[in-house]
Amino acid sequence: MRFEGLSKRFGEQPVLRDISLDIEPGEIFVLMGPSGSGKSVLLKHVVGLEAPSAGRVLVAGRDAADPATRRAVHMALVFQAGALFNSLSVYDNLALYLREHRLGTEAQIREKVMRALQILSLESAARKSPAELSGGMRKRVAIARALVMEPQLLLYDEPTSELDPVMSATISEIIATLKTHYRVTSVVVSHDRDLALGIADRVGILMGGELITTTTPAELRRSTDPRITDFLNPRIDLSAPRFKKLEPNQPS
């Protein structure tokens, strides 16, 4: 996958500025940066949910803005909130794409769905509603739903957000395992430093819409760039409070 001078503006507001980047097949690439830096917007360009203001995104040598690319290249996006249908069971959430596109008989669909559930250790949740599941299980269901599409490219938008440290580590291990066993290319947008430094082949740091570095986790740990060190290791300075102190009798 390649980004060639990708820029995006919403009105007069620039969101992405001249992003050029190659992501190798089979790689886990983690994109980090502060909130509002353009990470999710960049991801949306890959699946054609946003059109570039300038430049382009190529997936398997094809322009991502062309609908034919999404038909030719299997891509799946794991949304931050899961985007599961609460009116459907977990099983039916996974089967929906296969049924809608008539990708097999019901027996073949069942085989694919149950295999994905087994990979994510979700067999016992097959008949449950997503509303009955914990946040971590819903994330795993969203990944399982992406797997049934047999993607060549798997995109994750904040896959460990709102999860406790143990479940965050579990999701990180799942992403790494999928690379090992399926050779899927993974692009992960995340604030999770442990995920990025633990499983990424390379990490990109996006700030103010600009890609300020692309490097390995080991090199990132050794960075002396204050923008990166302050982001990865923020300091709490209680001597300089950010909010005005209220007087004792001042109403809040």
UniProtKB/TrEMBL annotation:
The keyword Protein transport does not apply. Coiled coil: none annotated. Residues 1-233 form the ABC transporter domain. Signal peptide: none annotated. It comes from the Bacteria. GO terms for molecular function: ATP binding; ATP hydrolysis activity. This is ABC transporter ATP-binding protein. It comes from Cephaloticoccus primus. The lineage of its organism: Bacteria, Pseudomonadati, Verrucomicrobiota, Opitutia, Opitutales.
